[in-house]
Structure formats: C-alpha cells, structure tokens
From TrEMBL:
Coiled coil spans: 678-712
Organism: Perca flavescens
InterPro entries: OSBP_sf, Oxysterol-bd, Oxysterol-bd_CS, PH-like_dom_sf, PH_domain
Classification via SMART domains: PH
Family: Belongs to the OSBP family.
Keyword Amino-acid biosynthesis: no
Domain PH: 2-99
Biological process terms in GO annotation: lipid transport
Protein name: Oxysterol-binding protein
Amino acid sequence: MASIMEGPLSKWTNVMKGWQYRWFVLDYNAGLLSYYTSKDKMMRGSRRGCVRLRGAVIGIDDEDDSTFTITVDQKTFHFQARDADEREKWIHALEGTILRHTLQLQEAETGFVPSVQDFDKKLAEADAYLQILIDQLKLFDEKIKDCKEDESRRKIENLKETTCTMVESIKHCIVLLQIAKDQSNEQQHANGLISTINPVDGIYQPPLDPPVVNTTMPTQTTLPTDASQVCKSDQRPSTLQVGPIVTVMGSLQTPTPNSTGSGQSGPSSSVASPSHMPLLSHSVPDFSYSSSEDEFYDADEFYQSSTSPKHCIDPSGPQAPSPLTDEATALKRPDTTESLNSSMSNGTTDADPFDSHDDRDDEGEGESVEEHKSVIMHLLSQVRLGMDLTKVVLPTFILERRSLLEMYADFFAHPDLFVSIAEQPEARERMVHVVKWYLSAFHAGRKGSVAKKPYNPILGEVFYCHWDLPSDAEEPSPHTETVSEGPVPWSSSNSVCFVAEQVSHHPPISAFYAECLNKKIQFNAHIWTKSKFLGMSIGVHNIGQGCVSCLEHDEHYILTFPNGYGRSILTVPWVELGGECNISCSKSGYSANIVFHTKPFYGGKKHRITAEIFSPNDKKSFCSIEGEWNGVMYAKWATGENTVFIDTKRIGIIKKKVRKLEDQLDYESRRLWRDVTLNLKQRDIDAATEAKHRLEEKQRAEARERKENEQQWETRLFHEDGECWVYDEPLLKRLVPQRH
C-alpha cells in the first residue's frame, strides 16, 4: 500500500469513553485512512477500521491544539495528536489526499479548455438554479398538507426526502467548484499546499519534470492553473503532478497509557508520480467502518441528519441551460470585509413615532435548516482552516436585516436588570446584580434555527435607541422630562438610552454606550470582532471590554465578553458561547469569574456556565452559580442556601424603540441600510447586492478622497483613550458641574 504517512494517534472511542492508542496509515492513492491496534498488527494486515477521505471535511478545536476531526459518511471521527506540530503534519497530509479525491480533473481527450470567465458564468448559473430548486422544495410542504390520502402523502414525503438529498449534493458540488474558481485567482501563491480547508492558497502550474525522491514529510500538491479543468471524473489524468508522497512518522509517539511505542519506522521508498497510477477505487470500502461499529465515531453529531453526500460530483450530471444575463452573476460579490457574528433579536415596537418596519418576529426569517446549510456551504467556498473571516467576501443572501451596531443593543434587552444595579445599597449586592444583568444579556438572540450575519457597519455609522422601563411603559406621563444633552435626546430621563458607532473599519471596532439619567448609571464598551474558520465550526473572538459605572458610588465594574462558536455547520448547526470572562471593581474589591463552557464532543451539556463571586481579598467565593446561559441559572450561597439566580425563560424582553426612518440621520443604521433591508425582505437578492455594493463603493471613494487629501477619519461620538474607545459626553462628565 502506497502511503504518504503512518504513525501513532489517539482516537476517541464511544465504547471505552476515552482515547485509545492506534497506528494510522494514510493511503494517498486510495484516499483511505486506515488504523490498527498496533504497528505489528499493521504489518500483519489486521486492520481495525478505516476512514474514507473523499468528500471529507477536517475540523479543529480552537481551544485545543492537538485534537482534530474528520467528518464523512454522516459520522465524525475524533483524533488526538501528540502536539500542535504533529497535528499540523497530519492535517496537511490529509488535506492533499482529500483534495485529490474530491476535486477530479477533466478528461484530457475532450480537448475543450474553457476560460475562467466561462467557468465563473456557469458557476453563477448553477447557483441560480440551486436557489430556484430550494424555493420549489418548499412547495412539498403545501402538497403534503393538502394531501388527504395516506398513500399519496407517503409518496410525496419520499419524493421530498430524495429531493433534499439531491439539493445537498448540488450544494456540495457548487462549493467545490467555487473553491477551484477562487484558487485560480490566487496563482501568485506559487509554493503553497492546496486543500479543501485551505482553498484560497491558490492553484499552481506544475513543473515539467517533477522529481521522484525519498522524503520523510509530505510535499506540495500541484494542480493546473486553469481552474476550469476541475470536473467530475473519477479518473486521474496525467496532467496532475504530485510530488513525493512517502512519509513515515514512526518516531512520533502519542502519550497514552496503553501506548505500545512507535517501534521502527516503516521503510521509506521511492514512489512514482501518482499521475501514472490508477485510482484503486475497488480497494476502498463504500463506507468508513470499524470492527466495532460503536467504537469510533460520535453518533450524536448527526442525529436526525442525512445531509452528508457520499459523492460530491456527479460524473453523469447534465449541463444546466443558461438563464442568466451578464448582470446576473450571483457569485460575483463586491469586495468587502465582513465579520461573522451570531444574529440576535430586534425587538422594535409599534408605538408611534418609533419604527417597527423590521420586526424580527415576522415570517420572512423562518428559513429551514436546508437553507441554512446553503448559507454555510457558500461560506465554506471562500475560507481555509484558521482563516480570519473578516477578510472573507460574504454573499448578500446570508445577511440578516440589521446592522451589527443594532445587534449590540440586545445587551440591554433587560434594562430593568441593568438599572437595578444602581438601586442596591451595598457594594456586595451591586456586584451580584452586575453579574445577574451580565448573565441575562446573552440569551435574547433569535429563537429560530438560522443564525445569519448582521450588516458589517460602515465607518461612521451610528445607531440610536432607547427602552422605557416597565413602570414607564405601564403608566406613561405626558410631562416626562427628556434628556436634551443625553445620547438620545428624545428619550426620557428614566429611560435607558443606547448609542453605537463604528469607529474603525480596519480592524473592525464598534463602540457603544448606554445610560439611565435618573439612576445615575452608565455603560461604555468597545468590541473588535475577529472571526475564524475552524473546519466544522466558526469561532468569533470578541476582543475588548465594557465598563458599568455606578456614579452615586463612584464604582466602575470592568468586564470582558465571551467568544461565540457556530458548531456542526455542515449538519444541524447550533451556536454556543465559550471562554472565561471576568468582572471586577477596583474600588469595592469585589470580583467575579465567569466561564462559558463549550460542549465537549465526548459528552456533557450545551450552553453551560459556571460563575464565582468573591468578596475583597477572599479566595473562597460567597456565591457559586451554574446552569445554562439561555435557560435557568442557580446560585449556591455561602450560607448553604440554594436559589434560582436567573431564569431567562421567564423574564420578559423589553423591546427597544427606534425613530422612524424619515426622522433618522443619513448615517444612522436603518436609514443607511434601508435599500438592502427592503430588498432582503422582498427576497430580491440581486437588488440587495447592488444596494450593498453602492454603500461599499461610497465608503471606498470617501477613503480614497481622505487619503489624497491626507486627512484622518474623525469619529462622531467616541474618541480613543489608550486602548479603549470612550463616549464623548458620558453621564459622568455631564454630572460633574452639578456636583460643584
């Protein structure tokens, strides 16, 4: 067997509920990762199991530098290397193998060599037909609902299931073709390794005479520069040149209790270029398997899911007709920087004079999981493992109908909890209420299954809103005092006011501020979002901090934010928070440590949090909190008493109030993005894309003009103070004259 790599790895087994030492052999030609209980068993050919690599997806854990996963055949396999370097070697070798068996080349004898433009046009056509097919797929539900005969209903349901499977296969095909197109535009990267999870590293011109040498590490894989040669054949034409492919990792030992040692390394050998070798498809099993089927994969990962196509490219598929004009190129997206963030609820009200045009509760947002996968598959076509997603061009159709600045307002979906901090007479109780408000701030997200991305704010964009506290909402007074000097002049002195501004575009930094005049409490924060692609997950790192200020007591509570993760993005997606956060008050000495636990693949619950609140100079907490950040959290006090700390299922969300569009400034979020929002609501993706493009072009033109005139951008409402962004006219500053 011609392998490019062999060596020890640990593999998670469900039977033992732990890591087991295995000897792995990667067969480049067969596209197979086989494993054995020991190297001796490998020499005797006693294989324990294998993982097919055609159509597989590699994933990594952002919080663990030694583990990785392979997802294929509706199963997820979990592996652990000795360290980060060893994991990197295995991943790169697996990448090349996956690429070879997923992106096949067109038969040379056809003689047809289309241009990249032809390729791009056909890709746009395929994407357009896919969207039409997805829309038609929805009609099955109406047919099933109207069908009165059980037999006819079953037939329609079977047809729907078959169609869903076909749609998923088409999505995967489009993604792979998109990868090839993107690679063809990166020819300047002449020496990188191409892979399905490093797709933008480029496509390269192979050398005329690739050498055949011995090596101990896998080398680069090269493909023709013409991306149009990517096609559907299972055969490997001689135009694909692959460098030396023999690697032995016998010296790499995975430190596990039952490790038997690496023994002698397998023999290195000279292997002819695989371009002259037939693909031994007959030696590859139809499915990945193990001698103990329960042993080797995380079955829960794909519960109620049948969306992982075994074959990504149909060799017999007919070529689609061309329904598009030159302008309808759905995959030619404008160049913009986007950051990926989980979407959260809007919560506008119908009360005049405030705007309710974009209520998150409308029916237009209820896309199915199938449509969500289409969103993710298009995203995957542009990213590589570990890539910063702020550099990724995202298609317009995945956008949520609001700006990221508006999303941050949902930190105050419970303004009554926020102002209750200032109402507490003791420093200890104020810290407890800061923690309570903080833990309530994350659950107010969308209730649906599809988490789309809010608009990436334009530099200088602002968003204003306010909340009427429950007492005000129930008994409004006609003589309510407005706050003319506050951030939201049309709000009352007993309202919680909010303002946000995009203060930087590179890097993308948002600053936001909130206050309640009557309670003399304010909040100032800035967040720099860095999104990273992790294979089967997407991670969003929220860099920055916030500060709650109780002005009556001269207390300032500094807090940090958790990271967000989109998990199982190729199957049934879900969102979780992760990371350790801190809240501290230097004056009172009280502090809190909060941990958002990510779900381990080998068991455990989702959305768990634990928190400890400490008195000054105490190493033992007086309050321990645990539960789910989007559910119920319980507190255990030093006295031994157990109470419900906060129940997010029972507390009501107070909807924010935003001025109507005609009353807003030109650079306010909803007015700025109104054309994009309207077209997205009407599902006119082309018009939404054009509107988005106009905004981005205007921003680029303004940036060029400032550069030509040697001018710096001046922020509107915030200024930089050290590493923080601070609101220009905070309540703290405005109250100073009143104290003298």
